[in-house]
Amino acid sequence: MFLLPLPAVGRVAIRRLGVNRFWSRGFGTADMTKGLVLGIYSREKENDVPQFTSAGENFDKLVSGKLREILNISGPPLKAGKTRTFYGLHEEQDFSSVVVVGLGKKGAGVDDQENWHEGKENIRVAVAEAGCRQVQDLEISSVEVDPCGDAQAAAEGAVLGLYEYDNLKQKKKVAISAKLHGSGDLEAWQRGVLFASGQNLARQLMESPANEMTPTKFAEIIEKNLKSASSKTEVHIRPKSWIEEQEMGSFLSVAKGSDEPPVFLEIHYRGSPNASDAPLVFVGKGITFDSGGISIKPSANMDLMRADMGGAATICSAIVSAAKLSLPINLIG
Q1: Which of these, 9, 33, 214, 244, could form a disulfide with 260 (CB 3.0-4.6 Å)?
Q2: Helix (H) or strand (E) holding 209
């Protein structure tokens, strides 16, 4: 059945739904390795009943309307980005925990002033910051995610939300795998996973401390990721001698602030069927730690300078993603 803290009136209602049978079976026997994230929309009008997504409706029918019933007595309707978690709701214990997330208005579309799709962003935020992180805190190793009407946005939210830079931590959080719930648009889900993985690569590069993410290490990581993404790629790791030959004095002067040798990284992706098509060229700042003037800069927030290579991290990750998606364009970074 299910269990959650509620006021007295709520506890009475739960007893009617059979909690005592849940306790007689024993919570310890439940399969604690699988979670489920489902979406629900905000009310369009004051007296409207909040509408589940298609996956939410199907699950509610599977549990004989108990999801709707317990949601109604557990508090006010969920707003965008808010959640409620229920335990032991499914008789067969397929999902030890079910997280219901608020998706905002069902008809939310493009916000012209903000120049973004509010509906898609609501899905990303709800699935990431609310749904999947709730499951992660419960140390459950697997979560199925409701596509919420847009499988790509749901995948992006799930993969982005579950990411954490813990490379240097001895105690790490439980690794969680997220997959699409139901037989929805698997192609869109996979595309969302690729989009989010590209962003997470950039996050990994920027979050790494400067003594770990040296110019050489940065170049090696991008080379490995790009070559594994597609055979239509080319990587040139230019050493200090090449930089000197090009008389790149400003570049070299900044590099003098470190014992680590500088690298000028050049990457190519040739995805266009026409090799003669002009490429799109991206340039990103890749200073792994801005040591210039470090003796006269204030010390506050100096650690944030590890992300001074954010420009290079972003364009390199974007080109890796383009290669994985087999985009029909030529790119240089």
Answers
A1: 214
A2: none
Distance (Å, rounded) from C-alpha 184 to C-alpha 179?
A: 11
Q: Which two tokens stand for residue 39?
A: 């979406």
Contacts for 5-12: CB closer than 8 Å, 24+ residues apart: 6/73, 6/74, 9/73, 10/73, 10/74
DSSP 8-state secondary structure symbol assigned to residue 84: E
Residue-range domain boundaries for the chain: 34-206, 209-332
**Which two three-digit tokens encode residue 226?**
């790009």
Mean pLDDT of the chain: 82
Annotation: CATH topology of 209-332: Aminopeptidase (3.40.630)
- Rounded alpha-carbon distances, angstroms, from residue 215 to 236, 275, 304, 306: 13, 30, 17, 12
- Helix 310-324 with 215-229: angle, nearest 10 deg: 10
Highest mean pLDDT among 39-53, 178-192, 233-247, 284-298: 233-247
The residue to which tokens 């830079």 are assigned: 165
Strand extents, DSSP E, the chain? 34-40, 83-87, 97-102, 110-111, 116-117, 142-145, 177-180, 233-238, 264-270, 280-281, 330-332
State the Cα–Cα distance between residues 64 and 55, nearest whole angstrom: 14
Question: What pLDDT, on the 0 to 100 scale, is given for residue 92?
Answer: 63
In terms of Cβ atoms closer than 10 Å to its own Cβ (0-12, 13-18, 19+), residue 83 is middle
Report DSSP state, residue 330. E
Question: Which residues partner with 110 through β-bridges?
Answer: 117
Task: Give tens-digit pLDDT for 9-58.
Answer: 333 333 334 333 333 334 444 445 788 899 888 777 777 778 888 998 99
Listed in sequence order, the residues at least 6 apart from 308 whose beta carbon sits closer than 8 Å to its beta carbon are 285, 287, 288, 289, 290
CATH of range 34-206; options 2.40.70.10, 3.40.220.10, 3.20.20.150, 3.90.1300.10? 3.40.220.10
Burial of 117 (0-12, 13-18, 19+ CB in 10 A): middle
